[in-house]
C-alpha cells in the first residue's frame, strides 16, 4: 500500500479543484472504511454481503491509503488522483454523497451581527468561588498554593484567553460587523435570535454550549480556540486562526471555505416517572447533591404537565452535538437497563453506562471509551503470535501503527446519518448478556432499570432517567448544525 | 504446547496430595504468568530483565499449559506431574510461595458460634420503599407492572433466597453450632466480636459488606450464594454447596479444605479539606443528592478533628477487598488528578477515573474496565494481518481463544502482595499525558484535582476526595481476610 501512495505522491501538481476533490475523496474514504470494521452496519451489508473478509481487508487498505494521502496533503505535497479500479467507483459514489452535505460556499459570508460567547476561565471561576466565601485575592493565592495549584499560572491562562477574545472582537468590528460579547452565563435564545452568526470563544465545552441553544439549521456557528495550549479544540477552527482571526474573516468574506452540517441527536422520553426538564450541569457547576436536588425540583414543578399527557412521548428541548450518555449518576454504581437497536429485540444489560454519539462525538467521549492503548494491542498481538507461531512483529513502531489504525477507525464524519452506540464496561455473566458491545444504528431505544440515573447530553445537560423511563434516540435532518470548514 | 499437555494427561493416577500439588502449581503458574504481560512489573524485571520477548512468550506458554491442565483437572482427569526443565524450577519456587498463604487446614474447623448475615432481596427492598410511601401490596404489584417489572418474579427470587438461608441455619444448628441470623442492616462490630466465624448469605455484595467489618485476620468469613441463578458469587463457595450446606460443614469439620488469606487495601488520607468519615452507599441506597449531603454532614461534624491534626495522614477505617475507585462522583464528569506509582514522579492525568484492585478484585470491576470484547480483538488482528500480509486466522474460534487468553491474564491471585491500577478511559492530548494505562504496584499515591469526587471502596463505602486531598493506597499484612477454599 505504501508503495502505491509513494508513486502517486511523485506525480505532477494538480489544480486547486483537483486537490480539493482529492481531499474530499480521502475524507470520503474515511467514511467508507469505518463501516468495514462493523460487519453488521447496514451500508456494509448492502454493499458486500457475501464477501466479508476480503472486503474488510480491501476497505482497511483503502483507509490506510487515504491516511497516507491525508498526511502528505497536510505536508503540502502535490498529488494526482491516480486511483484505479474499485477504489474509483467507491470514491465517486461517496464523493457525491459528501458534496451534498459539505459544500463550497456560494459567494462570501459576511454577517451583519455576530454574538461572541466567551468561556469562564478557571481563574474567574476560582475568583468567584472564593469571593463568594468572602476571601481576598491574597487569600485566594494562598489557598491555591496549599492545594498545589498556581495562582500566577491561572492568571496567565486567563490573560491569554482575554487577549484572544479582544483580537476576535476587534477583527469583527474592523469589518464593520456589529458585535455583542456575552459571557456563557448570559447566553440565551434572545442572543441566538439577534445574531446572524455566533462565535464561540473558548474551548470545546463553550462550543457545545453555544450549539445547544441553536435550533435553526441555517444559523452558522463558529468556534475559536482561545487557549490552544490548554484546550484540544476539536470543534474549533484550526489553531492558527486564534491569532489571525482577521484572516479567517477574509476567507469567509471571499467564500474560501465550506459549509458543514453536523448531525445532532434528538431524544424522546416516555414511561413512568419521567421528568423532561433539563438540568444544566456546567452553568451551576453542580455537585452531586445539587444535581439531584435540581432534578427533584423540576419534577415537582413539572408533575402536572406530565400527568396530563401520560402517553405521548416528550421531545426533549435539547440536541446532542457530541453524544448522549445514559447511566447511573453515581459513578461507582452499575447501570441496569434494556436496549433495543433499530427496533430489534430488547436485551437486558448491566454495565457502566451507554454512550450514543454522532460523527462529531466519535472524537470525544466515545473515542475514549473505545480506544485501545498500545499495551493492550501489544498483548493481543503477542497472544496471537504465540498461538499461531507466525512471525508477527512486536516492535514499538508496529504496535504504534496498529494502535493508531485501530483508534482512527472509531472516528466517522460529522455529517454521517448514523449513530454509534457503545456499552461501557459490559458485564456479561450467567445473568446478563451483551450481543454487541458497539455498533452503528439509526435508532436506539433504552428502558431504564436504574436507581438514580440520568441521560447526559454533551456532558452538560442532564435529564432524570430512572426505572421505568424509556428513551428513543435518533437523528433528524431538522436538527443539523451549520458550521464552517476553514483550511 | 497442547501436545505436551495431552501426553501428561494420559499417564497414571496420582495420589490426592500429588493432585493438590499440581493444582497449586497450576495456580502458581497463573501467578507467574500474569506478570509477563506487564514488562514493567517489579517481579518480571527482577526475574528476566534482559530476555524480555523470549520469556514473555515462555510465560504465556506456561500459562496456556496451566489452563489446559486446570480444565482437565476440573473434568476430573488424573494427571501426573511430568514437567521438565525450567518449568519445574519455577513450579517449586512458586509452590513454596503459595503454600505460605493457602494452606491445608490443620485438623478440622468447627466454630461454636456463627453469625449468618443475610442480604436484602429486591422484593424486600421494593416492599420497604412502597410501604414507606403508604402503598398496599396490590399497589406495589401494579406499580411494578407499569415499570415493566414482575412482582411474582421478585417474590420467587425472594423465596428462593429465604429458603436457602433456612437450610444454612438448619445445617448449622444440626451440628450443634449456635447461630445468630442478622440482616445486613443490623450487622455490626458486636456481631463480629461475638462470632467465631461469619457466613454471608447472599451474593458478592453481601460478602463485601461482611468482610468490611472484619479486621481480625484470624476470623474466618465464608460466603454462600443464596440465589445462584441471579448472582455470580465470585466470592462465595462453589454453587453446589448452596443446596448442600451440610456437606460443606462436614468437610470443614474434617479439615478437607484450605485456608486462603486474601489481601486487602488500606488508604491514608491527607491534604486540604479532607473528610475521613465514610458514607455507606448500600445501607442507605443513597441517591446522588443524599450521597453528597451525607458527605457534607460528616465534614461539619468532623471539622474540629481535622484541624487538630492537619499534618498526620489519617488511616481510613475501612479495607478494600475488591478495589478502590477514585473519580468524580458524577458519572459524566471527567476526573483530574495526579498519580505517583511506587514513589515515582507525579503525572497529571485526565480520565474517567482510577481503579486500584487486589487479586480478589481483579475479577470484579477492574476486570470489566480492562477486558476486551471479541469485536475489538478481531479488529486488532485484522489490522495486524493487513499490515504484515501474514496469514493470521480470523475465524470465530481463534478470536474467542485469543480474547479468552487476554482477559484471563487480567486476573491474579487473591493472596498476591500487589495492587493492580488501571486508568479508565485515559484522555491523552497536548495537555494530559498517560505513560501507563495500567500496571502492578506496591503503592499508589493520588492527589485530587477534582471538583466533587470520591474514593469508593468495594462499591459500597465512599469518602470525599476533592481538590487538594492526597491518598496513599497500599497493602498491609495486618489487613488480610481469612477465607475458605472448598472444592
From TrEMBL, chains A, B:
Record EC number: 2.7.1.23
Catalytic activity: NAD(+) + ATP = ADP + NADP(+) + H(+)
UniProt keyword terms in alphabetical order: ATP-binding, Kinase, Mitochondrion, NAD, NADP, Nucleotide-binding, Transferase
Cell compartments where the protein resides: Mitochondrion
Enzyme class, spelled out: transferase
Main location: mitochondrion
UniProt superkingdom: Eukaryota
Transmembrane intervals: none
Name of a matching Pfam family: NAD_kinase
Stretches of the chain forming a coiled coil according to its record: none
Family indicated by similarity: Belongs to the NAD kinase family.
Biological role: Mitochondrial NAD(+) kinase that phosphorylates NAD(+) to yield NADP(+). Can use both ATP or inorganic polyphosphate as the phosphoryl donor.
PANTHER family: NAD KINASE 2, MITOCHONDRIAL, PTHR13158
Subunit structure: Homodimer.
Name assigned to this protein: NAD kinase 2, mitochondrial
